[in-house]
Structures are given as C-alpha cells and as structure tokens.
Amino acid sequence: MKKLPNTSIHPNTSIHRRGLMLVLSSPSGAGKTTISRILLEKEQDLTLSVSATTRKKRPGEVHGKDYFFVSVKEFDEMVERGDMLEYATVFDNKYGTPREPVEEGLSNGKDVLFDIDWQGTQQVAARAANDIVRVFILPPSLQELERRLYARAQDSAEVVQGRMAKAADEMSHWAEYDYIIINKNVEKSVADVQAILRSERLKRERRPGLDDFVRDLRQA
Ligand SMILES: Nc1ncnc2c1ncn2[C@@H]1O[C@H](COP(=O)(O)OP(=O)(O)OP(=O)(O)O)[C@@H](O)[C@H]1O
Ligand SMILES: Nc1nc2c(ncn2[C@@H]2O[C@H](COP(=O)(O)O)[C@@H](O)[C@H]2O)c(=O)[nH]1
User: Fold this and answer.
1) Of 192, 206, 208, 215, which residue is least crowded by CB atoms under 10 Å?
2) How far apart are CA 173 and CA 121, in angstroms?
3) Which of 175, 2, 36, 168 is closest to 112 using CA atoms?
4) Is residue 152 lining ligand 1, measured as CB closer than 6 Å?
5) How far apart are CA 16 and CA 50, in angstroms?
6) Is 33 annotated as a binding residue?
7) How far is the CA of 147 from the centre of ligand 2 (A)?
8) How confident is the model at residue 113, as a pLDDT?
9) For residue 7, how far is its CA from the centre of ligand 2 (angstroms)?
C-alpha cells in the first residue's frame, strides 16, 4: 500500500511539521457538515477533502464544493485506477475520498479534514495510522437526531427513516475514535474540535523539525 507523503513545512513556522488527517464521523444528521463548515472558516491551515459520491445532489449542493457528484461508472473507474484513498457504500450510495487532493494538501503544509463514515475511517487508519485523528460526533438524543434530519429538509421521510434505522449501527463504532463530542451546542462543538486540533498539532511526533531546533538550542 502506498504511504502518504504527509510531511511538510508548516506555513506559520519555519519548524518542519507533519500534516494530520482530521476525521469527523457520526450518525447522519448529528452535525458533521455544520461543524466542518464553521471550522474551515476559522482554521486557515485546514482544508476539506471533498468526497466523490454517486448520491443525488441535494438542493443547494455544489459540484466540487460539497461533493464530486459522479455516476456509478465514473466512481468505479476511479476505484479501478487507484484514485481513491478510501471508499465505501453508505445508505445504498457509493462514497469515496479522491487521493490526490489529500496528498497535495498535506504536501502544501495543510491539515486535511474528512467527513467520512466508520468504514472509510478504518481504511484511512490502516494506511496512515500515525497521521489520523478520529473524532466521533454524537447527537444529544435520538429524538434530536431525528428532529435535525427532518429540519434539514433535504431528504424524503423514507430517506430520513432509513438513516435513523442505521444510526445505531454507525454509533456502534464510537469506541474506535480518539475523541468523542456530544453536539448539543454547535459553537461549543466547534471549539472542542479546535482544541483537539491545537493539541494534536503540538504533539512531539508531528514536529520532526524540532529535532534540529533543539539540537541548535543545545549547541548555542
Ligand atoms: N448543535 C446543533 N443544534 C441544532 N441543530 C444542529 C446542530 N448541529 C447541526 N444541526 C442541524 O442539524 C442538521 C443536520 O446537520 P448536518 O447536515 O451538519 O449533519 P451531518 O452529520 O453532516 O449529516 P450527514 O451525515 O447526513 O451528512 C442541519 O439542519 C443542521 O443545521
Ligand atoms: N467512507 C466514506 N463516507 C463518506 C464519504 N463522504 C461522505 N461520507 C459519509 O456518508 C454519509 C452520508 O453523507 P450524506 O452527505 O449523503 O448525508 C455520512 O456519514 C458521511 O460521513 C467518503 O468519501 N467516504
């Protein structure tokens, strides 16, 4: 398996830092997209991995921004060519992470944000165990989860009920994640993810450039 080239010079410092892959997963409707949008506005050095999907576009969604909306044939060809970092079938549609933009983001000194399910998270973790940071978002209650899915008003009642039926299955993977956030208040949840990001960026093993820095300090 190809190892990701995820070392970089972080733009805000001359000290060499490894980019990280921040994964958000949750049952559908718990708030990953909402949290991601705000987070990306606040975090300059974070870039979103835009997934490819065979799902139909929702009202307001933009090709290339929310997803790359592709046919099943196009999706399968991407998989065949090895263009996907990970892929999975979720709620009867195919979803996958195009590899190249992720590699490019990491090489440009960015951290990369993923909104993917537990299957994709397991695949990325298998390829880049040292670079992945996994955050699982829980809803405050099942009633609130259902309310949010209906309030989003972008899916039919049938789709919402299908997603509610699979929520327990998705949540059964919560213990595979490094951090758990109960998304009651969006601002608080965003602040929590920012705290995670900040701490993870400071980890010694993500800052290989410190070796030289400390050597120089000790020789001075
Ligand atoms: N903390 C919150 N309090 C109230 N409403 C919220 C909160 N977080 C998100 N929402 C609302 O819940 C709905 C679902 O949120 P969102 O689309 O972000 O979920 P998601 O986890 O990305 O879902 P999916 O997995 O289907 O993409 C949206 O209408 C959003 O505005
Ligand atoms: N394994 C992957 N899962 C993905 C990817 N992109 C999105 N998702 C997950 O799919 C569901 C449904 O999303 P929706 O936009 O249709 O509501 C959700 O859990 C996403 O996290 C991907 O590239 N790979």
Assistant:
1) 215
2) 10
3) 36
4) yes
5) 26
6) yes
7) 20
8) 98
9) 26
Known binding residue 120? Answer is: no
Query: Helix (H, G, I), strand (E, B), or coil: what is residue 91?
Result: coil
Burial label, 72 (beta-carbon count in 10 A; 0-12, 13-18, 19+): exposed
Note the pTM of the prediction, 2 decimals. 0.92
- Helix, coil or strand: residue 107: helix
Place of tokens 């789709």: 159
The amino acid at residue 94 is K
> How many Å apart are CA 103 and CA 136, to the nearest integer?
23
- Does any ligand 1 atom lie closer than 6 A to the CB of residue 34? yes
How do residues 12-70 score in pLDDT, each as one tens digit? 445 677 799 999 999 999 999 999 999 999 999 999 999 999 999 988 999 999 999 99
In order of their start, the domains of the chain are 21-206 (3.40.50.300)
In this prediction, the answer to ipTM > 0.95 reads yes
Q: What distance in Å separates the CA atoms of residue 111 and residue 59, rounded to the nearest whole number?
A: 29
82 is in an annotated binding site: no
88 ligand 2 Cβ < 6 A? yes
The reply to whether ligand 1 has any atom less than 6 angstroms from the CB of 29 is yes
Chain centroid to CA 195: how far? 16
Type of residue at 209: G
